[in-house]
Amino acid sequence: MRKKIVAGNWKMNTTVAEGVALAKAIVKQKKEVSKDVQLVVAPPFTHLVPVAQVIEGSSVALSAQNCADQPKGAFTGEVSAAMLKDAGCAYTILGHSERREYYGETSEKLVKKMALAFENGLKVIFCVGEKLEERNAGHHFDVVSTQISEVLFGLTPEQMADVVIAYEPVWAIGTGVTATSEQAQEIHSFIRQTLAAHFGGKVAEETTILYGGSCKPSNAKELFACPDIDGGLIGGASLKADDFIAIAKAY
Ligand code: PEP
């Protein structure tokens, strides 16, 4: 059975005190969620250590939102994969559309980041997804398969066991517009076929593929009922413990 994951991407939100309170509330309410669902929280860098202390022993896992493309040294403002591991992270998100759009995150950089994440024992939540104009032009399958092939096809099947893919159509992120369950299932199934064609059926069947983009308690059940959707990467709705837990309870 594929792992089901509901991960909260807090982005650049909350003070440390607010983040700690949010993590405490999630840990408290975690018992309402099926044991089959792995909860992950991805706070800002400054919150990682205090949030790690809150979630210790709880089965909620810690993720960073990004990591550096260099191992260490004179790279002012960057945070390395080794530092994230040391802070208590099990995962890092890589390739979020906001990083691609605002910070020039190319596939070339993502290949380096992914290698460093693995070297340091981190799993990766790798984001892909098309922009509105790309979907309207009917290019969404091409965009997603290129994002996948450029970064993931250099990995071994063993490394793929530490990759979670998050399909996040850019037009659905933070907009309140969600992909319909048909649109999401269609592209999740396509992603699985793309993996199968390159890595074989076993890797494709075992890879967790999350949906992200305005996922909320009211639409999570329908999305998560799709056969190729294995959970969600949640932005806005992950900032309220009640909503985050309600989404995870959709399983
Ligand atoms: C995200 O940015 O990963 C995301 C899914 O955001 P939102 O849920 O707010 O659309």
Topology:
Blueprint: E1 4-9, H1 16-29, E2 37-42, H2 48-55, E3 61-64, H3 81-87, E4 91-94, H4 97-102, H5 107-119, E5 123-128, H6 132-136, H7 140-152, H8 157-160, E6 163-167, H9 181-199, H10 201-206, E7 209-212, H11 217-224, E8 231-234, H12 241-248
Parallel strand pairs: 1-2, 1-8, 2-3, 3-4, 4-5, 5-6, 6-7, 7-8
Helix pairs in contact: 1-2, 1-12, 5-7, 7-9, 11-12
Bound molecules: phosphoenolpyruvate.
Characterization of this structure:
By secondary structure, this protein is of the alpha/beta class. Helix content is 44%, strand content 16%. The chain has helices at 16-29, 48-55, 81-87, 97-102, 107-119, 132-136, 140-152, 157-160, 181-199, 201-206, 217-224, 241-248, and strands spanning 4-9, 37-42, 61-64, 91-94, 123-128, 163-167, 209-212, 231-234. The protein has an eight-stranded parallel beta barrel, surrounded by seven helices. Strand 2 (37-42), helix 2 and strand 3 form a beta-alpha-beta unit. Helix 1 packs parallel to helix 12 and helix 5 (107-119) crosses helix 7 (140-152). The radius of gyration is 17 Å and the shape is globular. The relative contact order is 0.16. Bound molecules: phosphoenolpyruvate (PEP). The site of phosphoenolpyruvate (PEP) has 13 residues, from strand 8.
Whole-number average pLDDT?
97
- Structural class by helix and strand composition: alpha/beta
| C-alpha-based Rg, rounded | 17 Å
For the biggest sheet, the summary is: 8 strands, parallel, barrel
Give the ligands present: phosphoenolpyruvate
CATH architecture: Alpha-Beta Barrel
Domain module count = 1
Question: How is the CATH topology named?
Answer: TIM Barrel
